[in-house]
Specification:
The complex is a heterodimer of chains A (306) and B (80).
Chain A: E1 2-3, E2 8-9, H1 12-29, H2 34-43, H3 48-72, H4 78-105, H5 109-137, H6 149-152, H7 159-166, E3 173-176, E4 181-184, H8 185-202, H9 207-218, H10 222-246, H11 252-272, H12 278-285, H13 287-302
Antiparallel strand pairs in A: 1-2, 3-4
Chain B: H1 2-44, H2 46-76
The chains are: A mainly alpha (306), B mainly alpha (80).
């Protein structure tokens, strides 16, 4: 199939299957999936700038489907998502500016890459430790298609630290009744800002940083963190899509075709979360930051950027 | 349990087939005619294109979510 905007010839079946796989991952883990979509578009010959912009547009569509399904399951905290979107956009802008500054300063790619690898590996290591410890110390909850509060009940071996963060009384304090959390606005903005900063540094949505941060720092139950992250991604990725589109980096036809596969995958992923407890989802999440680290290592070693 | 899994997989396979037929029709009827118009818009009015692109991807996502939910209800006879 010919896509006139980017001038690329790509099989629609390939795009649909790629979209489907990313949709399943996104619906289940609450991530954008750019670490797969970007390379997948590059492999079929799409220019790097189009791969980045088109991937963002596709993420918007996939996140709409997954977030809508998660909302039906009661897994989206709208207030938290809107606040986080502000922090993410701010962080992404600062991250992008910082990259420009660092580029002018000299050989910074190496430093940024090493920091990224350290962060990704740390997240994975920590999540393995925490989720295994939680699974070992708590009786698994009955699973099935569980809706409502019972389905959102969650445990974490890191909860004592999270409770300490929630006790920080830095005005203004925000109540999040859907998540059952009361916390300082600044903590939420900081978590979102850091996620956005990594997004600006490394591209994509940086969901592999934001989702665990929501669970461990803010104390949001895992199912709600997944759903809310997807809702937040709709806003921040829409902003990214707009800025990339005005620079001529978005082939919306490719994104629309990918989204036909993602629509099915995202629903499967979202529904599947109801069959797993929070710690199990977190344990299954562990490979994602490692894939992010592997991509950075590949880029560092070969010099090829996805 | 096995019976339930079989029913779910069968419903999913039927849904995929119906969905695939709808998507093929969609490729030819909608994307084929949209292509050139969007290309021209992208060349001449970049800001309008950016806005239209977001509206299209969100609009399509909402429609597809509704279609897949409807298909599931029709095939399985109940909501997820």
């Amino acid at each position: 199939m010919f896509f006139p905007i980017s001038g690329a010839h790509i099989s629609p079946i390939y795009l649909m299957v790629t979209g489907f796989l990313i949709g399943v991952l996104g619906g289940f883990f609450g991530v954008g999936g750019s670490f797969i979509a970007g390379p997948a578009l590059r492999v079929v010959g799409l220019d790097w700038n189009f791969a980045v912009g088109t991937d963002l547009a596709h993420i918007v569509g996939k996140s709409v489907v997954a977030a809508k399904r998660h909302r039906a399951l009661g897994n989206v905290d709208l207030r938290l998502g809107l606040i986080m979107a502000l922090g993410t956009i701010g962080g992404a802008e600062v991250g992008a500016q910082l990259i420009q500054m660092l580029k002018r300063a000299g050989n910074v790619n190496f430093v940024v890459s090493i920091v990224s690898i350290a962060v990704y590996v740390s997240i994975s290591t920590f999540m393995i430790w925490e989720s295994r410890k939680t699974l070992a110390s708590h009786k698994p909850m009955p699973r099935g298609l569980v809706k409502g509060a019972a389905g959102k009940e969650d445990h974490s071996a890191f909860m004592h630290v999270t409770r300490g963060i929630q006790r920080l009384k830095i005005w203004p304090i925000i109540k999040l009744p859907t998540s059952g959390v009361t916390i300082s606005l600044w903590v939420i903005l900081l978590v979102a800002f850091v996620g956005g900063l990594f997004s600006g540094f490394l591209g994509g949505g940086a969901g592999y940083i934001r989702m665990p941060s929501m669970v461990y720092v803010l104390g949001i139950p895992t199912h709600l963190a997944v759903g809310t992250d997807l809702f937040e991604i709709i806003i921040s990725a829409s902003y990214g899509t707009f800025t990339h589109a005005i620079k001529g980096n978005v082939d919306i036809l490719i994104a629309l075709v990918m989204n036909t596969g993602a629509a099915v995958g995202a629903q499967i992923g979202a529904i599947s979360t109801q069959y797993f407890a929070g710690p199990t989802i977190r344990l299954a999440f562990v490979p994602l930051p490692l894939i992010g680290a592997a991509i950075v290592i590949y880029t560092l070693v070969t010099g090829h950027k996805f | 349990m096995k019976r339930e899994t079989f029913k779910t997989l069968r419903a999913f396979a039927i849904e995929l087939l119906v969905y695939a037929a709808l998507v093929v029709g969609y490729f030819f009827l909608v994307l084929h005619f949209l292509g050139e118009g969007l290309h021209q818009l992208e060349i001449r009015h970049r800001y309008t294109y950016a806005g239209v692109a977001i509206l299209l991807i969100i609009g399509q996502a909402v429609v597809l979510e509704s279609v897949t939910t409807l298909l599931l209800r029709m095939i399985r006879g109940r909501s997820e």
